[in-house]
Design goal:
Radius of gyration: 17 Å
CATH architecture: 3-Layer(aba) Sandwich
Number of domains: 1
Strand content: 15-25%
Number of helices: 8
Oligomer: single chain
Strand order of the largest sheet: 3-2-1-4-5-6
Number of strands: 9
CATH topology: UDP-N-acetylmuramoyl-L-alanine:D-glutamate ligase
């Protein structure tokens, strides 16, 4: 049977993040991608110029259209900018008994622009976080979820992962891309208390637009194909690391460019 994954997220018209990055990732990893759009953004590699929220009733209608017809194996949730959107998605997941959920708590874009209203953070923490198979915050997002300081080392990352795990998800992956050092280290903590460390060489490039979206959707793609969670995380880390390493083979925009989602397929660098 065809592996199908759904992304529930905001749209990025410049193609580097959000729904567009998720669908590119699904396709690159051999998974059929469907989508539910929660917000339209006006953004590019230089920043976010505007956000237009999709009415919650229409978010619900999209969920019903997709889940009533497609045999969905995994769901990735990204940008939910307002409380009403969070409620619509939470109710939709409950209607279809969705269990394989990768929640990427998107709060701030790579450019620094805020994508989640402050009043929505507590609702996200109380409603969607407990429903997730895995939550994938970066260091600033982890701190925001916990009203804490940004973790300064791996011990602090583990401590924050334990606190997020106590909110109810079955696993937490804290991403270390915002840290310093020669390695980019992600920490995976499961409900059994087992911690796994995923490290890759840190790559000197400004082309990191959409890395968080791409990693969470790559995890969802692995789960849709039947991978166990640690295997899905390991494969996703390898995919995104390669996409960052090859990002300068494509020239897109004047700011923080996107990662190269199709690095395995585009054999010739762009002119």
């Amino acid at each position: 049977m065809t592996a199908i994954a759904v992304t529930i997220a905001g749209s990025d018209p410049s193609g580097g993040a959000g729904i567009q990055a998720d669908l590119k990732t699904f396709s690159a990893l051999g998974v059929y991608g469907a989508s539910v759009i929660t917000a339209l953004t006006a953004q590019n590699t230089c920043g976010v110029q505007g956000i237009h929220d999709v009415p919650p009733a229409f978010i619900a209608q999209q969920i019903d259209s997709v889940f009533s017809d497609l045999a969905v194996k995994a769901v990735k949730i990204g940008m939910l900018s307002r409380p009403a959107a969070i409620e619509a998605v939470t109710d939709g997941l409950a209607r279809y008994d969705v269990e394989t959920v990768v929640l990427d708590p998107v709060m701030v874009a790579t450019s620094g622009d805020r994508l989640l209203a402050p009043e929505a953070v507590d609702l996200l923490r109380r409603t969607l976080v407990p429903k997730a198979l895995i939550v994938t915050p970066n260091l600033p997002e982890s701190a925001a979820l916990l009203d804490a300081s940004v973790a300064a080392d791996e011990a602090a990352m583990r401590g924050q992962a334990e606190r997020i795990l106590a909110l109810g998800p079955r696993a937490v992956l804290i991403k270390g891309g915002h840290a310093q050092g020669d390695e980019s280290v992600d920490i995976l903590l499961g409900a059994d208390g087992r911690m796994q460390r995923f490290a890759a060489p840190r790559i000197a490039t400004r082309n990191t637009h959409g890395t968080g979206c791409s990693l969470s959707s790559a995890i969802a793609a692995g789960l849709a194909k039947g991978f166990a969670l640690p295997e899905a995380v390991r494969a996703a880390k390898a995919y995104v690391s390669a996409a960052i390493a090859t990002s300068e083979q494509i020239v897109v925009g004047r700011g923080a460019g996107p990662v190269h989602h199709f690095h395995s397929f585009w054999r010739e660098p762009a002119a």
